[in-house]
Amino acid sequence: MSRFLKGCKDALPVSVSVLAYGSVLGVLAARKGLSLTQLAVMNTAIFAGTAQFVMVEMWQDHLPLIEMTLAVLVMNLRYLLVGASLRSLFTGKTLMEKLVFMHLVTDESWAMTMAAQRRGEASVGHLFGGGVCVYLFWSAGTLGGHAMGAAIAHPEAFALDFALIAVFLALVVGLWRGARSDLFPWIVAAAASIACAKLLPGKWYILAGGICGSLAAVLTGGSAPLTDSDTQEAAHA
């Protein structure tokens, strides 16, 4: 229990920014027509900030389930590497325990755990505590933002119609590490997205940009794996 509480305490500073970030998602979800219940279920079932923003952007009366599922899958592929980096912490745990712990892993709690691991303080309890703390603040932010968004008659007056673009621009700035490693994959991703948006209906441009950019990075040897400091910077962006 002490390690769990330590994880919660360590996650509090970043959780405050998660609260603000989540409120933006809540406002956008309300404007897209998601109910409070639907948003709460999404928070629990998905619990992945960037993927949830993508889902909200793709939300419409007739849900593009295949496009949405593939887009979320691509956005969350990085958690395969995150899980591999945490393997030593899960020694002796059952499959169900591992699934629960990994479901609550976020970029923020992972970065915090990696820092604790270098100090010799990492544990499953610490990781779990950080994840629970981030989840509670994320849920409070999204649900509070939803209530606020539903009460605003003209969101464009507060530039809320630009909120999704602003969020992704902030994430991009946080993840940029220099032209040498990132420029070519980013150009490929942008070109693929623009071309797909012009040629295909729906939201396939999101998937096309993600896949093409990732393949470009792999084939050129660019975009080295994120360090925990990189992840913390992106999370705070």
Q: Span between N and C termini?
A: 31 Å
What is the molecular shape? globular
Number of domains: 1
Largest sheet: none
How many helical stretches? Answer: 12
pLDDT averaged residue by residue: 80
Helix residue percentage: over 70%
Encode the helix/strand succession as letters: HHHHHHHHHHHH
Structural class: mainly alpha
Share of residues in strands: under 5%
* Uncertain stretches of 5 or more adjacent residues: 223-237
**Number of DSSP-assigned strands:** 0
Transmembrane segments: 12-30, 36-56, 68-90, 124-145, 157-177, 183-200
Membrane topology: Multi-pass membrane protein
Pfam family, one: AzlC
Keywords: Cell membrane, Membrane, Transmembrane, Transmembrane helix, Transport
Provide an overview of this structure:
- The protein has helices spanning 2-32, 36-45, 49-58, 65-75, 78-85, 95-103, 107-118, 124-151, 163-175, 179-199, 204-220, 228-236.
- The protein has one domain.
- The model is unreliable at 223-237 (pLDDT under 50).
- The two termini are 31 Å apart.
- The chain has 237 residues and is mainly α.
- The longest helix is centred in the N-terminal third of the chain and has 31 residues, at 2-32.
- Helix 1 (2-32) packs parallel to helix 3 (49-58), helix 1 packs antiparallel against helix 7 and helix 4 runs parallel beside helix 11.
Brief overview, please?
The chain is mainly alpha-helical and 237 residues long. The protein is built from 12 helices and no strands. The protein has one domain.
